[in-house]
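Troubleshooting entry. The earlier prediction with pyridoxal-5'-phosphate gave an output that would not parse, so I re-checked the input for stray whitespace and re-submitted. Clean input:
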Amino acid sequence: MNPAEIPFLDLSRQNEELAGEFAAAFSRFMQEGNFILGPEVASLEEEFTAYCGATAGVGVASGTDALLLSLKALGIEPGDEVITAALSAPPTAVAISLAGAQPVFADIDPVSRCLSPHALREKVSGRTRCAVVVHLYGRMADMPEIAGIAEECGLALIEDCAQAHGASLLGRAAGTWGQAGCYSFYPTKNLGAYGDGGMVVTGDDDLASHLRSLRDYGRTDRDRLGEIGFNSRLDELQAAFLRIKLVRLEAWNRRRRELARRYLEGLAGLPLGLPDWDGERNHCFHLFVVEYEERDDLRIHLAKRGIQTAVHYPVPLHLQEPYLAGGLPSCSCPAAERTARRVLSLPLYPHLSDEEQDRIIEAIISFFRALA
Ligand SMILES: Cc1ncc(COP(=O)(O)O)c(C=O)c1O
């Protein structure tokens, strides 16, 4: 990489800082010979549960599995409808489909970019059993409203917290508003492993025991199956690495918020849509996403200056191939469609330097100056 380039995400800087502790964890792992669902996983479950303020945590193989197993444990069955936001990463919808349920896509609120409570209410039918709300980009959805609608309509509520480690609203963490909070430890997340991993946090001990069985083939003990489950277990090495990182998560999230504040100040007054961030929402800025009609022009301008950006997500879920009916969309979600056309994610990670960020801000200002 050209030294002047600013990568969208550079995990090597974080790894350098942690290399010594990782090496110690690895040598412990080699000596002890516990590979899967051992003491490191149990400790991570305890520590991450406490971090979220939940009562139980169940480590699984990925964020997608956290969603899938939660849907199964909550009794979602083929034929049931599950409502989710039209703008998210594909796995939100994939998990619903893998559970055999019918995903129903509801529009987002254009300011929060998360599920609109109004759209959720409109989509509830006699077959709706569950809502999966996504805290997109690390910004909490409108949980008081959404939890109220779920309760009123008798829906199970699952939170997709894959992008929301450390986010909270009104002092309540992501993942503790519904029955199940589903986290991903995919390497790029605010708390990322060195491979796949995930966890479900919950306040319901019965649900937690059901999830523990479901992640382990559906076993009730070593030799007995209670039902047909999955092989979806978290391994010891990933858990050991995640525990080392969990201790830093709050400090890393503070740095993310500081960088977000610098972006908001530096980009104020430009014709760009900026993330909505009020004091009640402890946004964890997994991504810093701006909006602009000519998004691709801005992206090219930044790329020419060595600044990498990304787009999350160019295709809303209801327009993804498997969800088209005879090649046509089965519903319209205009806010999600407009947002997907306009979004651009700028580099934001704890190890991004102020100088690098200043260069990014300068490059964006120069784009608009040239247009004037
Ligand atoms: C919003 C969202 N949901 C679910 C997932 C799935 O997580 P995983 O990749 O760990 O399966 C991701 C991660 O990519 C995500 O961003």
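This one parsed fine. The longest strand covers residues 128-134.
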